[in-house]
């Protein structure tokens, strides 16, 4: 049953307390609306799912995001403030952030100096490390899902594809499509169903490279093309991934990509100004280890010398080690009660 709603004539009022201001985003599963909380006067962002609660895909994604964010609380994760339904559509209320990283790259790339990139990257890794410490993988880290405030505080958002590994430990199949292609790890591209936290680390490496290049590192036009671009810079796939590729019916009749025009990652960045520093390349290559079992972890990334060498004094206070965990509030966001959600959400 829908929650109590305002009269029909209040067309710009949502859930009897939010005034619609404007639409600020749109994706495959919903739109994001900037609203004003009429009780507090504060501005919030409301994600309205385009499909109804009766659409199994929409229901799965919405309930998964609600459940996940009710378990995860950290300074670098988006805050879920409330949940309600209107016209059988889920509405998620979040704190408002000025823009996402993609918008910053497109509208104001000069702001992303190397010192600022380091500040932003550390917060992205810190957020992901916290998730991984609770056995949660995000599975869709990309610039659009990294929110920025005017003072460069980072909030990781969009947990509709997140999963907890304690629900489905390593070596148990994750069967659904995840991750935007350009940020997808090779194990996902070949169809490996036994993946884990290393897929997030790969995506972080892609985001890091994109901040430096001001463009996607590997903008593949298909999964096969994506593999080609990766192997062109990093070398051939692991033997385990070749076997998975060959047994994947999606690639039936195709051979694993092998580039005759190889170019090392350092050469790929040769035209970047200022030149890529050794520590920057080292961190990036650690994220791009082709074998996920040997890929660096987020906890190890936070200890990398890149974050501690030649820190700009103006940014130094912001680069102090942030808390890995934050005390969880004792209450749930208002709206749909957690007990009502849990039976369905846990099955998904």
From TrEMBL:
Keywords: ATP-binding, Kinase, Nucleotide-binding, Serine/threonine-protein kinase, Transferase. ATP binds at residue 47. GO terms for molecular function: ATP binding; cyclin-dependent protein serine/threonine kinase activity. Gene3D superfamilies: Phosphorylase Kinase, domain 1, Transferase(Phosphotransferase) domain 1. Its EC number is 2.7.11.22. It catalyses: L-threonyl-[protein] + ATP = O-phospho-L-threonyl-[protein] + ADP + H(+); L-seryl-[protein] + ATP = O-phospho-L-seryl-[protein] + ADP + H(+). It holds the Pfam family Pkinase. InterPro entries: CDK, Kinase-like_dom_sf, Prot_kinase_dom, Protein_kinase_ATP_BS, Ser/Thr_kinase_AS. It comes from the Eukaryota. Residues 18-307 form the Protein kinase domain. Belongs to the protein kinase superfamily. CMGC Ser/Thr protein kinase family. CDC2/CDKX subfamily. This is cyclin-dependent kinase. It comes from Cichlidogyrus casuarinus.
């Amino acid at each position: 049953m829908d929650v109590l709603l305002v009269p029909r004539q209040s067309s710009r009022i949502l859930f009897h307390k939010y005034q619609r201001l404007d639409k600020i985003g749109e994706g495959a599963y919903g739109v994001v609306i900037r609203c004003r909380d009429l009780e507090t006067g504060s501005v919030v962002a409301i994600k309205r799912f385009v499909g109804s609660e009766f659409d199994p895909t929409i229901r799965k994604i919405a309930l998964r995001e609600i459940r996940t964010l009710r378990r995860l609380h950290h300074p670098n994760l988006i805050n879920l403030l409330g949940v309600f339904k209107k016209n059988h559509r889920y509405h998620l209320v979040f704190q408002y952030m000025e823009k996402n990283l993609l918008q910053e790259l497109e509208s104001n790339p000069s702001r992303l100096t190397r010192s600022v990139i380091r500040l932003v990257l550390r917060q992205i890794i810190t957020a992901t490390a916290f998730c991984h410490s609770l056995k949660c993988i995000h599975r869709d880290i990309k610039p659009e899902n990294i929110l920025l405030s005017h003072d460069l505080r980072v909030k990781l958002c969009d947990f509709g594809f997140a999963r907890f590994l304690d629900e489905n430990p390593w070596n148990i199949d994750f069967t659904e499509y995840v991750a935007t292609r350009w940020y997808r790890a090779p194990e996902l591209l070949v169809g490996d169903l036994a993946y884990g936290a290393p897929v997030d680390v790969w995506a972080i490496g892609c985001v890091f490279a994109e901040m430096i290049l001001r463009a996607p590192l590997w903008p593949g036009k298909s999964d096969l093309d994506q593999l080609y671009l990766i192997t062109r810079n990093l070398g051939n796939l692991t033997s385990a991934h070749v076997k998975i590729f060959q047994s994947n019916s999606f690639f039936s009749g195709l051979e694993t990509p092998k580039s005759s025009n190889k170019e090392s990652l350092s050469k790929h960045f040769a035209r970047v100004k200022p030149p890529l520093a050794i520590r920057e390349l080292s961190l990036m290559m650690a994220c791009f280890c082709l074998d996920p079992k040997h890929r660096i972890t987020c906890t190890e990334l936070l200890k990398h010398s890149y974050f501690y060498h030649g820190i700009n004094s103006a940014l130094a206070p912001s680069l102090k080690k942030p808390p890995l965990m934050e005390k969880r509030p004792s209450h749930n966001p208002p709206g749909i009660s957690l007990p009502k959600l849990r039976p369905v959400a846990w099955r998904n």
